[in-house]
Specification:
The complex is a heterodimer of chains A (about 500) and B (about 170).
Chain A (H helix, E strand, L loop, with lengths): L3 H7 L2 H8 L1 E6 L5 E4 L1 H7 L8 H4 L7 H8 L6 E6 L9 E7 L6 E7 L2 H71 L6 H32 L8 E4 H18 L2 E7 L5 E4 L1 H18 L4 E10 L2 E8 L4 H4 L11 H19 L3 E5 L6 E7 L36 E4 L4 E4 L4 E4 L2 E3 L3 H12 L4 E3 H8 L8 H14 L10 E4 L3 E4 L2
Parallel strand pairs in A: 7-9
Antiparallel strand pairs in A: 1-2, 1-5, 3-4, 4-5, 6-8, 9-10, 10-12, 11-12, 13-14, 14-15, 15-16, 17-19, 18-19
Helix pairs in contact in A: 6-7, 6-11, 7-11, 7-14, 8-9, 9-11, 12-14
Chain B lengths: L4 E9 L6 H10 L12 E10 L2 E10 L9 H5 L4 E7 L4 H16 L4 E7 L8 H14 L3 E3 L8 H15 L3
Parallel strand pairs in B: 1-3, 1-4, 4-5, 5-6
Antiparallel strand pairs in B: 2-3
The chains are: A alpha+beta (about 500), B alpha/beta (about 170).
Bound molecules: guanosine-5'-diphosphate and magnesium ion.
Guanosine-5'-diphosphate binds next to helix 1 of chain B.
């Protein structure tokens, strides 16, 4: 390539500019511009001759020393890629400063950045963005793994809960069955007090079964994020006072006292006060189980950045309990397992609030830590994301008749999926005969007769009762739950049997 | 008597996306924007700082980040009186590069002043590890460091003004 200076000298400036696609200015040793190409003048939008370089191109301010050194040949020529001529010019140029050996002074050559280097820069930007995205991806993966670990934890909890409950239900059932058989065999006998005793035991055990079933239901609801939580701001200190008040008298009988230490200002949280009360209830129950009287259960309420922490400790712990390995369900007797269940439920409630429950191990083995996110946004997303599990399956009993009957007296509900043959007392679910117990059938029939109406709990309790004695609300709930399972759970026709919280139930036509 | 006026070229150095452009934006326009746009070539912004010594007109050269430019760094560093060398507190790997940038910058401008900025402190609560590394850097280069946030504006002004002062004191013209 020929020396540009030589070309400049021989040619008309305009022609040279066109040929090399360059603009230029030249300045004397004091950096005053002597002449400039027309295109540069047009680009900058004003006359350049007579101004200093840094007046003409303010981005060169601060570089005067360096430019002078180049003009004098004391420093190397200087190429700045991607330079803007002024703050207003967004177009990047390649700018070159070199000495003019003959005339003395400085030549400034300005060329539009070539496409390759512009593209290279574009590519670099994309690469940087990708690297950034990858970093973000990594953090998100970590968060995901954390969530997954939590879910696995929940799943483990669920399994052990199921094991415990299955065992307990079995033993309660066999006790009840045993006594029922015994009652049947001994019907001819006359020792009434024995029967009463047996009946009492049966009632007691069936109640226990009912409780366990409710436990399962509660767990299922939380797990599937169906537990409706009434979010509102909660004052933890007050809530703690209320629960402690309820426990104080019971605890006194066992020579256990409570001490509450609340940091003020108490951390503000949002949540479902009823569920939180229940959780604290469970934890107190657990602490009483641990306590070796006389003892003091100490509760500290602390505010952390982003968290509210309730720490439950006990001053004296029963020896055999201190040795108890909290975390594993191994080698626990029924009573110990039952208390573990208390904590499991409290943990589920904590997680449902976006918090967690932990047992501190090292320094004081038996502290229970209950964490809640402070000032959490009232959002259902804080609930454990619903791991879709098939609903608790109830084995369908074999049915004798499977053909749809022709015409008799019908009531339908649940978008035609439920049909009741009133005359024969049979229920068909999507053309399949299902077998219901007497009470389940009576419940369904009653709701179907009041289809699309909310039927009050009391009304149902009275209707299902015997000899003028209504059944309990708990039994009604269990009954509804069982009926819903028969109808295919919340994924099937069971969804048409709606709970109207605190009021009653509704069957959709 | 006229108030003395100084022109000082300042380079912003550091790995990509540590917040160099954002720090300039905060300092010059008092704004913050979320989007990340790698700077193509160089963008020069100006900001006047008034010191007891006089008025300092800072020319802030924002360079394209990343290691690809290493072979061209001389083109950008020449004639600079100081550099703000930036790391991202959430990306420990960006700390290691601070020494590399400081070394190559001082090789071209041996008289220049340095200030380190550990940026994005709004994203992190625990500074212990970063503090230790920043103290080591300061001791090694004899240069101050600041924990900045272009988002909240924390310490941004202080970092630039300190650098302006150092360029006057170490490099008086
Ligand atoms: N949270 C936070 N983000 C920042 C801060 N400074 C920069 N960023 C973000 O980091 C990204 C990269 O910033 P940028 O200034 O373009 O980085 P550069 O490549 O070093 O110029 C952008 O998304 C900015 O919004 C800060 O102090 N705090
Ligand atoms: Mg940038």
């Amino acid at each position: 390539m020929p020396d540009p200076i030589a070309i400049l000298k021989e040619s008309e400036w305009g022609e040279v500019c066109a040929r090399l696609n360059i603009m230029f200015a030249w300045a004397d040793q004091n950096l005053v511009i002597r002449d400039a190409s027309r295109r540069l003048r047009v680009t900058v939008g004003r006359d350049l001759t007579g101004r200093t370089l840094s007046e003409a191109f303010p981005n060169l301010l601060g570089l005067e020393d360096e430019l002078r050194r180049i003009a004098r040949g004391q420093a190397q020529p200087w190429r700045i890629p991607g330079f803007r001529l002024s703050e207003k010019h967004l177009q990047p140029y390649d700018v070159l400063f070199m000495p003019l050996t003959e005339s003395g002074g400085l030549l400034m050559v300005v060329r539009q950045m070539d496409i390759e280097s512009a593209m290279e820069r574009e590519l670099r930007q994309q690469r940087n963005e990708m690297a950034l995205l990858q970093e973000q991806l990594e953090t998100q993966t970590e968060a995901l793994q954390l969530t997954q670990a939590r879910l696995e934890n929940l799943e483990r909890e669920r399994k052990s809960l199921m094991d415990i409950i299955a065992l307990d239900i079995q033993s309660a059932l066999s006790i009840a069955q045993g006594y029922a058989e015994w009652l049947q065999r001994a019907l001819a006998d006359s020792a009434m007090s024995q029967y009463e005793q047996a009946l009492k035991l049966i009632t007691q055990e069936t109640e226990h079964i009912g409780e366990l079933v409710r436990e399962v239901q509660a767990f299922q609801r939380v797990e599937r994020a169906l537990e409706s939580m009434a979010w509102r701001p909660v004052e933890l200190a007050k809530l703690l006072d209320a629960v402690t008040g309820m426990w104080r008298d019971i605890a006194k009988l066992r020579e256990v006292d409570f001490e509450i230490h609340a940091k003020s200002p108490a951390p503000g949280i949002s949540g479902d006060p009823e569920l939180l009360c229940e959780a604290m209830d469970r934890i107190y129950n657990y602490m009483l189980f641990l306590a070796d009287p006389p003892a003091t259960v100490r509760v500290e309420l602390n505010a952390w950045p982003g968290w509210a922490l309730m720490r439950f400790t006990c001053s004296r712990i029963r020896k055999e309990q201190a040795l108890l390995e909290h975390r594993s369900g191994h080698a626990l007797n029924a009573r110990q397992r039952a208390f573990q269940l208390q904590l499991a439920r409290a943990r589920i409630i904590a997680e449902g609030h976006g918090g967690h429950l932990s047992l501190s191990d090292e320094t004081d083995k038996n502290a229970v830590l209950f964490w809640l996110p402070a000032e959490s946004a009232p959002s259902d997303e804080a609930l454990p994301a619903g791991v879709k599990k098939p609903p608790f399956q109830v084995k369908k009993r074999p049915v004798e008749e499977t053909r749809t009957p022709s015409a008799s007296k019908w009531i339908t509900a649940g978008r035609e999926s439920i049909r009741i043959d009133v005359e024969k007392g049979r229920v068909w679910l999507n053309d399949e005969l299902i077998k219901l117990t007497d009470s389940e059938y009576r419940l369904l029939l009653y709701l179907a007769q009041h289809v699309n109406e909310v039927v009050r709990n009391e009304e149902l309790q009275a209707h299902l009762g015997k000899d003028g004695r209504p059944i309990s609300l708990a039994s009604l709930r269990v009954l509804v739950w069982r009926l819903r399972q028969h109808l295919g759970g919340n994924e099937g026709a069971g969804q048409y049997l709606r709970t109207v919280r605190g009021f009653g139930y509704l069957l959709v036509s | 008597m006229a108030i003395p006026t100084f022109q000082r070229k300042i380079c912003l150095l550091g790995d990509f996306a540590v917040g160099k452009t954002s720090l300039i934006r905060r300092f010059v326009y008092n704004r913050f924007e979320e989007e990340y746009l790698a700077t193509i070539g160089v963008l020069v912004s100006r900001k006047e700082v008034i010191l007891p010594h006089g008025i300092v007109n800072l020319l802030l050269w924002d360079l394209a980040g990343g290691e690809t430019f290493v072979h061209m760094e001389e083109a950008y560093y020449r004639g600079a009186a100081g550099a703000l060398v930036v790391a991202d507190i959430t990306r420990p790997d960006t700390f290691g590069l601070l020494n590399v940038y400081a070394t190559s910058f001082l090789a071209i401008n041996p008289q220049a002043a340095l200030v380190f900025a550990i940026n994005k402190v709004d994203l992190k609560e625990d500074f212990t590890e970063a503090s230790k590394r920043a103290q080591d850097l300061s001791a090694r280069w004899g240069a101050p460091h600041f924990f900045t946030s272009a988002l909240s504006g924390e310490q941004v002004q202080t970092a630039f003004v300190t650098l302006a002062r150092l360029t006057i004191e170490s490099h008086s013209t």
